[in-house]
């Protein structure tokens, strides 16, 4: 079973992050769902994720991970040198999440916002819920 990444489908930075992951996930470890989609809303409820969470969410087995923990765990399964970022999990989460929080808080201002979610290309459409 692949892990699921929930992302903000209206955020340009989040969309670029999904594209980045797709290019470096040759073994298709990850599936994707927008937080705004029906599948995303259902998974948030199913995993009992707090509603106002400002984070990309990694759902892996019966657990979910947020903020920097999600991002670094995602890196652990990517192709190439991106795996080394997984090692940053040794840094205490509150410290890591300060930096994640700054990016999350400013992502619309720095990268912009879309009116709707992107449509995946036919090559990767089956990886989106």
UniProtKB/TrEMBL annotation:
Pfam families: DCC1-like (PF04134). It comes from Ornithinibacillus salinisoli. This is Thiol-disulfide oxidoreductase DCC family protein. It comes from the Bacteria. PANTHER family: DUF393 DOMAIN-CONTAINING PROTEIN (PTHR33639:SF2), THIOL-DISULFIDE OXIDOREDUCTASE DCC (PTHR33639).
């Amino acid at each position: 079973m692949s892990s699921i990444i929930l992302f903000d489908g209206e955020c340009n930075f989040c969309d670029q992050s999904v594209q980045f992951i797709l290019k470096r996930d040759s073994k298709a470890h990850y599936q994707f769902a927008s937080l705004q989609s029906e599948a995303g809303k259902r998974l948030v409820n199913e995993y009992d994720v707090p509603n106002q969470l400002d984070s990309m969410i990694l759902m892996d087995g019966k657990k979910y991970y947020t903020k920097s923990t999600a991002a670094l765990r995602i890196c652990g399964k990517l192709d190439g040198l991106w795996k080394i970022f997984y090692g940053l999990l040794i840094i205490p989460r509150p410290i890591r999440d300060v930096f994640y929080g700054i990016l999350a808080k400013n992502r619309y201002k720095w990268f912009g916002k879309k009116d709707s979610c992107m449509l995946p290309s036919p090559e990767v459409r089956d990886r989106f819920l």
